[in-house]
Design goal:
There is one protein chain. The protein is α/β, with parallel strands linked by helices. The protein has one domain (about 5-145): Sugar-phosphate isomerase, RpiB/LacA/LacB (Ribose 5-phosphate Isomerase B, Chain: A, 3-Layer(aba) Sandwich). It is built from 6 helices and 5 strands, in the order E-H-E-H-E-H-E-H-E-H-H. The protein has helices at about 15-30, 50-60, 75-80, 95-105, 120-130, 135-149, and strands spanning about 5-10, 30-35, 65-70, 90, 110. Helix 1 packs across helix 5 (about 120-130) and helix 4 runs parallel beside helix 5. The radius of gyration is 14 Å and the shape is globular. One of its GO terms (molecular function) is ribose-5-phosphate isomerase activity. Keywords: Isomerase, Membrane, Transmembrane, Transmembrane helix. It comes from Ehrlichia muris AS145. Belongs to the LacAB/RpiB family.
């Protein structure tokens, strides 16, 4: 882990429990966690409303990563990826999280609260945050993505 690395995290109502577990896990690993998620799981909210703060923080803090959590992870990833400089990846296992970082230099991890358990989520988060971008041929590919927006 990088010293004083920040993680910006948010969720809608479906992701509150997983968000709190991940936040506690990251605190234990020594990350600085800024939480922008909703607070009431019994009141349905609109997931797009909980993406923008994390996106802004990641864009303005190049050493930080974002984590967005909703029921499927799909909605959050769609909204996040509409922003330039954001490469949000919906990861459902450790290998996909590793490849998202190595090949895509993903800077936001999206998780599906309804489809992964806490232990899987913690392993995915750890792999995502500790894997470095492999650069090489992938730099050109990311530049092409950035030019699309």
């Amino acid at each position: 882990m990088l010293t004083m690395q920040k993680v910006f995290i948010s969720s809608d109502h479906a992701g509150i429990e997983l968000r709190l577990v991940i936040k506690l896990y990251l605190d234990g690993l020594g990350y600085i966690v800024e939480d922008y998620g909703c607070v009431e799981s019994s009141v349905a909210v609109d997931y797009p409303d909980y993406v923008q703060n994390v996106v802004n923080c990641v864009i303005n803090n190049t050493l930080g990563f974002g984590i967005l959590i909703c029921g499927t992870g799909i909605g959050m990833s769609i909204v996040a990826n509409r922003h330039k400089k954001i490469r949000a990846a919906l990861c459902y296992n450790v290998e996909v999280a590793k490849l998202a970082r190595e090949h895509n230099n993903a800077n936001i991890l999206c998780l599906a609260a309804r489809y992964i358990n806490y232990e899987e989520a913690q392993s995915i988060v750890y792999k995502f945050l500790t894997t470095k971008f492999s650069e090489g041929r992938h730099v050109q590919r990311i530049a092409k993505i950035d030019n699309c927006l």
